[in-house]
Amino acid sequence: MIQPTPSALAGLRILDFTRVLAGPSCTMLLADLGAEVIKIEYPQGGDDTREWGPPWLEVGDEQLSAYYLSINRNKRSVTLNLKTGEGTALAKQLALKCDVLIENFKVGQMATYGLAYEQLQPEHPSLIYCSITGYGQTGPYASRPGYDYVIQAQSGLMAITGPTDGPPYKVGVAISDVIAGLYAANAIQAALHYRHQTGRGQHVDIALLDTQLAALVNVASNYFVSGQNPPRYGNGHPNIVPYQTFEAADKPFILAVGNDSQFAALCKIIGQPELARDARFVTNAARVKNREVLVGFLQVIFSRRSADEWTEALLNAGIPSGPINQIADAFGDPHVQSRQLAQTVTFENGTTVEMAGPPVKLSETPPTVRHAPPLLGQDTAAVLMDWLGLEPPAIADYQQRGVI
Hints:
Layout: E1 13-17, H1 22-32, E2 36-41, E3 56-59, E4 62-65, H2 66-70, E5 75-79, H3 85-95, E6 100-103, H4 109-112, H5 117-120, E7 128-133, H6 148-154, H7 175-198, E8 202-207, H8 208-214, H9 217-226, E9 243-247, E10 252-256, H10 260-269, H11 284-289, H12 291-302, H13 307-316, E11 321-323, H14 327-332, H15 334-338, E12 342-346, E13 352-356, H16 380-388, H17 392-400
Parallel strand pairs: 1-2, 1-6, 2-5, 6-7, 7-8
Antiparallel strand pairs: 3-4, 9-10, 10-11, 12-13
Helix pairs in contact: 1-7, 7-8
């Protein structure tokens, strides 16, 4: 008999009061790792992203947005009307039976439902409660709504993104949300380890602004060390040269020279070995100082051959280089396919859709795509029966009165 693949977080129950991107990306990561995630949604409409289309996927009579699909697999959808006393009572009963609760309401909103950490903790001291907001639970901006676009601007990320002589640009995906989700998942697992040692839960406070500032990494450090606002470098790098795009004869490509030995190898490839001994370029610090001279010289040489010729020669010499792909090119790449980074998900009615698969590889407990993103409220009855022991007549009554 073939044994099922074990899951790292099997047996972990997570109650998910999040919507849009930061929270759902966190809970999907935990669900991929085996946790049972119950996604709580309002009966009318549910998660905002269900309406964020086109494009749409037709699943029977339902229409699911591609946005919603991207961050809600491996979850079960339960609809509860938290504007009713009975709805919040059901939510509390579910919360008292879970290991982790994750929410991304405005600061103070969960308290109005009787579902704040301070309200649940006395009855459930081992509960791990994660709040994801724009600005955190404390501070002058705590009450502000937090949106990725605003955080990208406010954190300084946009100030360092875009062409050197153009306006600031946002990143092409809601990267501040994604980063916050990753930090939240990591912090939750740290809290689980602490609970394993002590039996005590805790409140995890994740803010988009905090995590995006942390994600500035070397750029933030450049500011602290120099005292100067970092400029935009377009597709260049503030601390490494040459490390940017170059125009080949047919299309642009990426060159990423990370050290002096790689630069020496580059000089041989372009037929200019003497450049590696030139005082202006012999060290990375010198190359950064003389960036414009070196980049201009290299651009003339790179324009003489195709991008594929250059990338092949560079990679053969151990120098990082690669194409600038469209999304279709990226997912069609044989290496990407070999890593199963695109996976087909099947709905109960047989509809299939491809999704970006779990990026984490674990040798003993690999993450799995067990089921498709749920239709709105599809698991309400099953969860209320399994978790709370409710009978079908009681569930039907709640549904008729708009509680679920």
